[in-house]
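Human:
Focus on the backbone:
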Amino acid sequence: MMGWDSIKLLLFIMVSAAMTGILLSRYPPAIEPTASASFPRPFVVFDGTLYKNKPSLETYHVRPITVLYESRLFAANQSPVAVPPEPIVRSLAYELRDSPEPVVLDIERWPLKGDGLTVQSTVGKFLSVLSWVKGEAPSVPFGIYGTVPVPDYWRAIRDPASVEFRSWQQDNDRLEEISNRVDALFPSIYTFYTDRQGWVTYAIAQIAEAKRKAKGKPVYAFLWPQYHESNRVLGLRPLDPDYWELQLNTVHQHADGLVIWGGWGANGPESWNEEAPWWQVTKQFMRRLDQTAPGAPADIRVQ
């Protein structure tokens, strides 16, 4: 028979095990504590700009990134609801099979909101494209521009307890099969208005929602140092330098990195301007970051 001391020891072990189980159960099942959760990822800045005569920006530790646009993925005159031709998609992915950097698919023609059948059709199309690219380039991290979370300024800036905000989250939940399949999330947080506090609220909400759906995968936000073209008054005008600096600092505080987009005008690629105010601010921002250039973002786990 056990002595009283042995019984007390056994009871202590049983209680400790039960408490450990309770604490561990607080972690969502898809997010396990990992080294990347304990140690922050190096903040990575990617160059997604389309300027012509542009020098390499890697001197400032701005890394290149590949964006595959609809013009390359789809055949001419394809129906907006059709999927791109599988041979084209596979060929492009095969050419990128040795890329050390992420590849972003930019497909904006399929609806992300609407009735259940419409959204499920969109999800199925994205999953098909992802299966093709991953089949040809299994070691390359792939993501999709501005899809999860759904870019929605007015719902994202609402109170998180509001009906509008929760409906936005529900729309994002319907796209979960996409966010589960990509290797990183690339939310779009472009500038629509001069309201800086509104933009900060929007950006933080988009990034936080992306992190919720990423389940531990990296989140890299797309930024553009100009007003979005949908603004009929300010569209395509450059942001004030201090507004751009605010955006860089906000993303640095909340995301794992960013992709700078721009350089495309009414007549195609614009000429690079070394003296552009946005680039001067960006160089100062990069100097403030760790001067040791980070390696390729190896913590992107390819699925």
In short: The chain has one domain: 42-288.
